[in-house]
Design a protein that fits this description.
about 90 residues, alpha+beta, Jelly Rolls, four-stranded antiparallel β-sheet, three-stranded antiparallel β-sheet, 2 helices, globular
Amino acid sequence: DRGRWRTAPHAHPEYGQIIFVRSGRGVMNLDGQSVPFEGPCALLLPTECVHGLDYEYDADRWVVTIEVSYLAQVNARLHEFIGLWG
């Protein structure tokens, strides 16, 4: 669609992601539920989480991808992160 950027629902079993949205808005399909968002915000996508995204075309966003074994190392050192990925 004109003015939109979409990804179909999918999962990443080998890594988690953090999507930083500096500006703009959209809707995240998270395990079958629609979750609207508006920047500035951060979207946390745990491993195995089924998600799809529907952004406004001009949304300013970037993605950090964290491989599952590195994520486990971070969680082992920073226990407060464990709750974020649950």
